[in-house]
Design a protein that fits this description.
The chain is mostly beta strands and 124 residues long. It contains no helices and twelve strands. The termini are far apart.
Length: 124
């Protein structure tokens, strides 16, 4: 059973920083993609940042130059360093991973998993 567990959310003043972490656990063969999405009240969930196993990254325009995504492949952990936070960044942040887990003695098919979400609140 694969699980993604996030941590690091909280309350911060505008201009401040937070670092989110997401650790994948279970019988994991490989993680192709790790990313972060956010969902504010009344809005759809949207991509914030993502990183491939090869180190390629993709960021939402609104967070470029302020947020940095990284991974520690040995720990199956992804990070989102958020700086210069704005009130409009406030949302529930969800970790996402596209990964392959072991099924018996063989790698299974790739599929996506979501974490439970962590709240980020930014006060003005």
């Amino acid at each position: 059973q694969v699980q993604l567990v996030e941590s690091g959310g909280g309350l911060v003043q505008a201009g401040g920083s937070l670092r989110l972490s997401c650790t994948a656990s279970g019988s994991i063969f490989s993680i192709n993609l790790m990313g972060w999405h956010c969902q504010a009240p009344g809005k759809q969930r949207e991509l914030v940042a993502a990183m491939t196993s090869g180190g390629g990254t993709n960021y939402a325009d609104s967070v470029k130059s302020r947020f940095t995504i990284s991974r520690d492949n040995a720990k199956n952990t992804g990070y989102l360093q958020m700086s210069s936070l704005k009130p409009e960044d406030a949302a529930v942040y969800y970790c996402y991973a596209d990964l392959i887990n072991w099924t018996g003695l063989r790698p299974g098919a790739a599929r996506g998993y979501w974490g439970q979400g962590t709240q980020v609140t930014v006060s003005s």
